[in-house]
TrEMBL record:
This is M3 family oligoendopeptidase. GO terms for molecular function: metal ion binding; metallocarboxypeptidase activity; metalloendopeptidase activity. Pfam families: Peptidase_M3, Peptidase_M3_N. Coiled coil: none annotated. Residues 113-178 form the Oligopeptidase F N-terminal domain. PANTHER family: CARBOXYPEPTIDASE 1, METAL-DEPENDENT CARBOXYPEPTIDASE. It comes from the Bacteria. Keywords: Hydrolase, Metal-binding, Metalloprotease, Protease, Zinc. Binds 1 zinc ion.
């Protein structure tokens, strides 16, 4: 029997899956408490401290339960895209969440209307003091939104409108069928998750065939996908227009607690460092015997990376590498891997991609992926365990203080990846093994500097065009190809026109512009990792302190306090970029022919 199960255990959360009586009772309790919260808010319009404290306490209780419920349903849908009961439960959770948000909008309006001195006096003592940053944040944002009744109406309409359109991706991807032709000529039907893994196969002929099939199938779905993206963007733009928000990046920057100056400094540094990444891609093309890399060649494995790595070996490897950085982090990963927190089995019916989702009431997380034995899969598993550890060190904190943004979430996950690949590379027993691991590290630079940049460029262009009207599938293809050519600095022989159709991240409604936070996290984690190497084992405690502050600081404040750097200036980003591409020189030396 394997030490590390390939499938997760959801019954310890709510037994019975989508038919769970316990989960049904939980949802009913949430719905009843939202009504109770509504009554408390109505009674607390006078802004009395004891009333506001009662509201904040119930609000945080509901918040934890909604997060738990949403995560549970997401897991059910990911493991079986045809679970109709889970889809209905997802709608119910979203409805409860929308009503909760509507009540919070009125609570925020109370905070907004309070006298400054009265508001600060309330925050200075008791339970409110523990979440002062978050309450101030809510108050300031409320000043820039519509009247509470209008914001509540937007939230109600979003359930079947905005969020409803977002759910369309799950329907589309569950219906998408991919044909895989084996070497013996036999054909079998694969899910999107299984087919996606073929795109990084060690055999170029397999990749080429798989990519053609991937493009064909997503081309067939393009009209549905373009309708979905247009409706999502149209809803979002309509809300922004009514609020008087002219800049499309206003909301994503606020959600990530990040200034535009920081974002611009980051992209400028990346643009300066791209020639180094292009040198790597040019050498890789030469190694593969092609003039320029095709899209499906970019993630092709090299060296020892091409071998299949058993899941058991991958788990042991990750735990061992984590231990060199932090025994606590290693113990967490070992527990998660052994106790059925991971869904990694390669089987039909699963959603493509990978994620880590938090179950804060249970003090647990769940990780979803499809493991096929590539080094990229190992990195993904380490990445998601990094997310899990982030939540793990915050489980004892107030609910509002656990609400950290995506960019710092990606910091924790990317640091976990860095630890695994860098430690393994240093321990490599041969140049071939070192090359395979080096390739994995450099693939991150490609992903975060080039691929994510392409997504960012595409979305900015798409929203600008969407303001003028509906954007056709053909136009979306053109925008995607233009963005890829620009972001990859002309290093590709072919592009992926239907990338916009296939990528879940474009359809998510909780976080607009689900792209640049990845790059932020990658570079921020690079800087943190460099600090960890300088300071040694003692840094592990400082890292936990940084993670625990991620829900109650802007990223600029976080970097100043824990690293002593200014993120709005280019210096930190330039240093991080150089650290990230420093392996290119070694790669070129190892592959000199």
């Amino acid at each position: 029997m394997s030490t590390y199960p390939l499938t997760w255990n959801l019954d310890v959360i709510y037994e019975g899956g989508s038919s769970s009586p316990a989960f049904a009772a939980e949802l009913q309790g949430i719905e009843q408490d939202v009504v109770k919260l509504d009554q408390l808010v109505a009674a607390g319009e006078g802004g009395q401290p004891e009333q506001l404290t009662a509201i904040a306490e119930l609000m945080q209780s509901i918040l934890l339960r909604i997060r738990e419920s949403d995560s549970f349903v997401s897991c059910l849908l990911a493991q079986n895209m045809k679970d109709a009961k889970a889809a209905a439960l997802s709608d119910r959770v979203k409805t409860a969440s929308a009503k909760f948000d509507g009540v919070l909008t009125r609570f925020d309006s109370i905070l907004r209307s309070m006298d400054d001195s009265a508001f600060e006096a309330w925050l200075s003592s008791g339970a409110a003091a523990q979440v002062a940053f978050n309450l101030r944040e809510r108050r300031e944002l409320a000043k820039e939104k519509l009247a509470p009744e209008q914001e509540a109406l937007i939230g109600d309409l979003a359930v079947n409108g905005y969020h409803g359109w977002g759910e369309m991706y799950n329907t589309i991807v569950s219906r998408a069928k991919f044909t895989d032709k084996g070497t013996d000529g036999t054909e079998k039907t694969l899910s999107a998750g299984q087919m996606f893994n073929r795109l990084s196969d060690g055999d170029r002929a397999v990749r080429e065939t798989a990519f053609a099939e991937w493009e064909r199938v997503w081309g067939e779905q393009a009209d549905l996908c373009s309708d979905t993206l247009n409706r999502l963007a149209g809803f979002r733009l309509g809300v922004y227009e009514n609020r008087g928000w002219e800049e499309i990046l206003k909301e994503p920057l606020h959600i990530n607690r990040m200034s535009e100056a920081t974002l611009n400094a980051m992209w400028d540094a990346i643009t300066e460092g791209k020639p180094e990444v292009v040198r790597y891609l040019e050498r890789k093309a030469k190694l593969l015997g092609v003039e320029k890399l095709e899209w499906h060649d970019v993630t092709a494995p090299l060296g020892a990376d091409a071998r299949t790595i058993p899941y058991e070996e991958a788990c042991e490897f990750i735990v061992e590498q984590f231990r060199s950085f932090s025994p606590d982090m290693a113990d967490f990963a070992d527990m998660a891997l052994k106790e059925g927190w991971i869904e990694a089995e390669d089987r039909p019916g699963k959603r493509p991609g990978g994620f880590c989702t938090s179950l804060p009431l249970s003090g647990q997380t769940r990780i979803f992926m499809t493991y096929s034995g590539t080094m990229d899969n190992v990195s993904t598993l380490a990445h998601e365990l990094g997310h899990g550890y982030h939540q793990h060190v915050m489980n004892d904190m107030p609910a509002l203080s656990q609400e950290y943004a995506m960019n710092v979430a990606e910091t924790a996950s990317t640091l976990a990846e860095l630890i695994v690949t860098d430690s393994a590379m240093k321990a490599a027993k041969s140049d071939e093994e070192k090359l395979g691991l080096l390739e994995t590290k450099l693939q991150n630079a490609v992903a975060f500097f080039l691929n994510i940049h392409a997504r960012f460029i595409f979305e900015k262009a798409f929203y600008a065009k969407r303001k003028q009207g509906m954007v056709t599938a053909e136009e979306l293809n053109e925008l995607m190809e233009e963005a890829q050519r620009e972001a990859y600095a002309g290093s590709l022989g072919s592009t992926h026109p239907h990338f916009w159709a296939s990528k879940l991240h474009f359809y998510l409604t909780d976080v607009p512009f689900y792209n640049f936070p990845y790059t932020f996290g990658y570079l921020f984690s690079t800087g943190i990792y460099a600090r960890a190497q300088q300071e040694g084992p003692s840094f592990a405690e400082k890292y936990v302190a940084l993670l625990r502050d991620t829900g109650s600081m802007t990223v600029e404040e976080l970097a100043k306090k824990h690293l002593g750097v200014n993120l709005e200036e280019p210096d930190f980003w330039r240093e991080a970029v150089q650290l990230a591409v420093s392996d290119v020189k070694l790669f070129l030396e190892l592959t000199e022919q």
